[in-house]
Design goal:
The chain contains 13 helices and 11 strands. The longest helix has 25 residues. It has a domain of 92 residues: Transferase Inhibitor Protein From Tn5, Chain (Transferase Inhibitor Protein From Tn5, Chain A, domain2). With 457 residues, it is of the alpha+beta class. It is globular, with a radius of gyration of 23 Å. Strands 1, 2, 3, 4, 5, 6, 7, 8, 9, 10 and 11 form an 11-stranded mixed sheet that branches.
Length: 457
């Protein structure tokens, strides 16, 4: 896979050690230093790299987002942000410097990235920002009255601001988040002429016309019925075709009483797109889909509203990224490192590697016209070309249907190596299948390049 630098860190030795560590993580799809090192000396070298004070989280993050900014240039991009916790309670007895995770008991840390997609195709371009923190104290009694800067929820604003810097060359940026990001200060501070917000409403806000948001949204005229494929989500949601009523309209939300920003305007004009599943498609006792989407985008037509729904649905991909990073993928929570700082650095590096798996996963359909060079080196493309005939069958349906210069062509090969049967009629390969394929491909590449070196006179 395409390897890169993790940063310079003011020291060429650290730069090279970082490049080797990232190369091994890419090849082995693991964060176990013992597995990555291959021998005791290299394992110790990687541990010292992660514990070195010169190897800062800021530089790791900046290097992780640099290419994303370049790929986003001139495009309308969707910047998806969300939070995941990394639970290290199983190793808490020997790990220092961790905080508490969501249950208030277990040891761990929080990771809050910005995943960037191209809006038209859904292609994954990379990371736009990464915010990390540890919870060392409980909420204060006057939490609601505290300035947003003193609350954990400031991460939504800080990550959005960092993303704006990374994506400064993009034609348009739409920052997408779930209900936790429905923060009045965010609606006031983040949007500008080329930056929009799209967030699922959390609060039944008071509107300038004295109505309440949820009741007002429900009273809007149904503009159309949209049928969508709903993915399975553990026990909460079964996979099915849902029919969704689409309503939309302009609103003006009032400044809430608990807003601590004295300079915030008394109201903000937005658009609400209300998405509600018809009773006829709800599965048994499951909750019907009901999204009240707030956005700074203008929504003048039913097609505009459907685009808002489509863009919000892309948020699923950041949850897939977390799945790839954790138990079913890189297994970051199983790391044997002994300090919270080293674990945080390792998590940022692994997140960057997990994004490559997402790039392949999203390219699998062939609808995304991204170059194979987004992920693979020219030498690895030669290996892919050699592997393709071995993975194809005799019939047309078993052939790789994608142009060889496209990432979708490579994704087809990696998916086959991961165990996918190659039939377009079958369920497409998910990120875990892609991850298995990447591991197999890396092993093939090591043998290929070793043989090539041996055969050179």
């Amino acid at each position: 896979m395409e390897h890169g630098t993790l940063g310079y860190f003011g020291d060429m030795r650290l730069k090279k050690n970082g490049e080797l560590l990232f190369k091994r993580i890419i090849e082995k799809r693991s964060v176990s230093l013992r597995k990555l090192g291959g021998n005791r000396a290299t394992e110790v070298k990687f541990g010292r790299f992660l514990s070195n004070e010169k190897v800062t989280m800021n530089e790791l993050t900046e290097e992780s987002t640099k290419k994303t900014g370049q790929l986003a240039s001139g495009h309308h991009v969707l910047a998806l942000q969300d939070t995941t916790e990394l639970n290290f309670e199983a190793h808490a007895g020997r790990v220092s410097g961790l905080g508490k995770v969501g249950n208030g008991i277990d040891a761990g840390l929080f990771l809050h990235p910005l995943l960037v997609l191209e809006a038209h195709s859904g292609a994954c371009l990379g990371l736009g920002a990464v915010h990390t923190w540890m919870r060392h104290k409980t909420k204060s009694k006057n939490y609601q009255k505290q300035p947003i800067e003193e609350k954990e929820s400031s991460r939504w604003l800080e990550t959005a601001l960092e993303g704006k810097k990374t994506l400064k060359e993009a034609a348009l940026v739409t920052i997408i988040a779930d209900r936790e990001s429905d923060i009045y200060e965010e609606w006031c501070r983040i949007p500008d002429e080329r930056t929009h917000l799209l967030t699922r409403a959390c609060h039944n806000r008071k509107l300038a016309n004295k109505e309440m948001l949820f009741e007002h949204a429900a009273s809007l005229e149904v503009k159309g019925i949209k049928e969508v494929e709903v993915r399975e989500r553990t026990k909460k949601r079964s996979a099915h075709k849902a029919k969704l009523e689409i309503r939309y309209g302009e609103i003006e939300i009032k400044k809430p009483k608990n807003c601590s920003d004295e300079n915030a305007p008394e109201s903000v004009k937005l658009t609400v797109v209300d998405v509600k599943e018809l009773a006829e498609t709800v599965i048994e006792n499951e909750e019907p889909i009901h999204w009240r989407l707030l956005t700074t985008h203008e929504v003048k037509t039913y097609e505009d509203a459907c685009n808002i729904v489509k863009w919000y649905a892309f948020r699923w991909n950041i949850e897939q990224l977390f799945r790839t990073l954790k138990k079913q993928g890189f297994q970051v929570e199983s790391s044997q490192l002994e300090t919270g700082t080293s674990l945080t650095k390792l998590a940022i590096i692994a997140l960057r590697a997990a994004v490559q798996t997402m790039q392949l996963t999203l390219a699998r359909s062939g609808k995304i016209d991204r170059p194979v060079s987004d992920v693979f080196t020219s030498e690895e493309v030669e290996v892919l070309k050699a592997m393709r005939p071995r993975l194809e069958g005799k019939t047309v349906k078993q052939k790789n249907p994608h142009p060889k210069e496209n990432l979708s062509w490579a994704a087809w090969i990696i998916a086959r190596l991961g165990g996918w049967n190659g039939y377009a009629s079958e369920r497409p390969a998910g990120p875990i299948t892609m991850l298995r394929g990447q591991i197999e491909f890396a092993s093939i590449c090591r043998g290929w390049f070793m043989a090539k070196d041996v055969c050179i006179p």
